[in-house]
């Protein structure tokens, strides 16, 4: 079996770490692709085109104007390539391996809660090694952090000018229904309240502990399409944690 790390295509292509932009012509030459065709295809891709520009590149014969791509878009460009157009078998296998790895990573960071699949790079849940379990858990917490970040940006980015008469109210509480998934917004709101309250006491970033607890205690790896039962358990746990910090006694049990 070929392992991704042993054939890391980004390392093999060798972009200069001091470069912000990478010449497409150099990448096409390394992969054995037609530069003119790939530049035309890149310009037709809205996201890639937004990060491309013509600029002077130093060569043996002097500076030459070349179409260059912002380095952070290089993985996306590689994913969009047709590996069948790469003539050299070794380079084609290296590109296909990168694309499979990318698909696996993208699925791990984007899948809704409760969804699973036959990830080609991972065995079944009960056959995973400790390293594989660590990868899945770390990706889950990274996904929670990403969802938290995007929801906070969306909610905080909504202006409060039209609520000037609502002084002192929590703007998040008014706006959780502005998202396509209000449950995700509710969970993010509660997670932020706990993390910020705890950080005031420890002077550390406490989001890590919140995400770790959500994953370890409830198997939550995504805010997307959260089952109502799991959501209720997580919210109850977070509220109890917050109450303990603030010295609020738990309510009596229902009889």
Total tally of structural domains: 2
- Give the class from helix and strand content and strand pairing: mainly alpha
Distance between the termini: 59 Å
The proportion of residues forming helix, as a percent range, comes to: 40-55%
Number of strands: 3
Which strand order spans the largest sheet, edge to edge or round the barrel?
1-3-2
Verbal overview:
This protein has 255 residues and is mainly α. It folds into two domains: 5-110, no CATH class; 129-158 and 170-246, no CATH class. It is 55% helix and 8% strand. It has eleven helices and three strands, in the order αβαααββααααααα. The chain has helices spanning 9-13, 24-31, 35-43, 46-50, 74-80, 89-110, 130-156, 171-175, 182-202, 207-218, 228-246; strands spanning 21-23, 52-59, 62-70. A three-stranded antiparallel sheet has the order 1-3-2. β2 and β3 form a beta hairpin. α2 crosses α3 and α7 packs across α9. The longest helix is centred in the middle third of the chain and has 27 residues, at 130-156. It starts with 8 loop residues before the first helix and ends in a 9-residue tail after the last helix. Mean pLDDT is 83; it is low at 1-6 and 159-165.
């Amino acid at each position: 079996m070929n392992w991704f790390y042993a054939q890391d295509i980004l390392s093999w292509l060798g972009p200069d770490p001091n470069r912000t932009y990478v010449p497409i012509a150099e990448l096409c030459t390394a992969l054995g692709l037609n530069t003119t065709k790939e530049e035309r295809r890149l310009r037709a891709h809205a996201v890639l085109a937004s990060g491309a520009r013509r600029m002077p590149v130093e060569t043996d014969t002097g500076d030459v104007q070349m179409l260059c791509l912002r380095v952070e878009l290089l993985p996306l460009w590689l994913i969009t390539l047709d590996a069948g157009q790469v003539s050299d078998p070794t380079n084609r296998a290296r590109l296909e391996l990168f694309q499979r790895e990318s698909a696996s990573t993208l699925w791990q960071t984007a899948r809704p809660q409760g969804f699973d699949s036959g990830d080609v790079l991972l065995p079944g849940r009960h056959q995973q090694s400790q390293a594989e379990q660590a990868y899945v858990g770390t990706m889950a917490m990274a996904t929670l952090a990403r969802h938290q970040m995007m929801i906070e940006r969306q909610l905080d980015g909504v202006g409060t000018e039209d609520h000037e008469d609502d002084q002192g109210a929590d703007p998040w509480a008014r706006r959780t229904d502005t998202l396509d998934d209000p449950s995700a917004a509710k969970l993010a709101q509660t997670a932020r309240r706990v993390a910020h309250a705890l950080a005031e006491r420890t002077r550390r970033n406490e989001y890590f502990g919140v995400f770790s607890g959500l994953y370890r205690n409830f198997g939550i790896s995504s805010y997307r399409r959260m089952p109502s039962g799991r959501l209720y358990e997580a919210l109850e746990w977070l509220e109890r944690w917050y109450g303990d910090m603030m010295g609020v006694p738990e309510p009596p049990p229902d009889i």
